[in-house]
Amino acid sequence: MGKQWVRQEIKRNELQELVDRVLLWASSNQQLAAAIGGGTAAAALLAGILIYRSHSMQSAAWDRLALAEDSAYAGQVESSLKQISELAAQYPNTAAAGYGYLFQGDLLYPRGQYKEALEAYNKVLESGQPKVLQPLALGDTALAQEAAGQCEQSALSAQRFLETYPDHFLAPQVHACLARCLQARGQADQARTAYQKITLQYPETSWALWAKKRLDSPAAAK
Q1: What spatial distance separates the first Cα and last Cα of the chain, rounded to whole Å?
Q2: Cα(94)–Cα(89) distance, rounded to whole angstroms?
Q3: Cβ partners under 8 Å of residue 64, min gap 6
């Protein structure tokens, strides 16, 4: 991948240099640029440049995210986290930045850095984009809050998730999170109801078996 990425960067830099030269010429020859085709050609040129710059920015952001992921999978977590921070700083309004924040949270969570993981997930939720990441960020938020001992907040996040994304593939896991938090807070009746819903809504799954065991345990009756 390294050599291919370098070639792409070289090509991108050459194209950017061409665009910069065109912009410099247009700014130095405004009357001539406007006169070409009654200004139509100049307008089309500028529109094309804006489209190119947007595409170039998106491509560069995805490349940075790919490098961050490669570093993480190679065991270089600190380097990956640094690259994600740089990605977010340089390309804050790209879809890649949203994926970067979610990936950042997923790197921090298993390290026990729940506060930092929650901050990363919250950035995805605050931006509202990309939309496909919203249920993932919200579900991860509920799980991270539970792990951090914030059961009240976790239950609220889990309930919000289940109301908004009842058919999402993360729903069983989030439902289990809600049941555990309700039980941990001493809300035995609500916890039993949550366990029962899991057995009914996700039958013949490992989650249903897990919930049934919890229902049969003495702790669930308290």
Answers
A1: 57
A2: 11
A3: 83, 86, 87, 90, 91, 96, 100
Give the pLDDT confidence of 51-89 residue by residue, as tens digits.
444 455 678 888 888 888 889 889 999 999 999 999 999
Which two three-digit tokens encode residue 40?
Answer: 């139509």
Q: How many residues in the chain?
A: 222
The closest of 76, 127, 67, 70 to 102, measured between CA atoms, is 127
Residues 6+ apart with CB under 8 A from 57: 91, 94
Calpha distance 95→131 (Å, rounded): 10
The whole-angstrom separation of Cα 93 and Cα 57 is 10
189: its two tokens: 């009746």
Q: Which of 62, 130, 123, 129 is nearest to 96 (CA)?
A: 62
Condensed to tens digits (0 to 9), the pLDDT of residues 97-150 reads 999 999 999 999 999 999 999 999 999 999 998 899 999 999 999 999 999 999
Domains plus CATH for the chain?
55-129 (1.25.40.10), 153-222 (1.25.40.10)
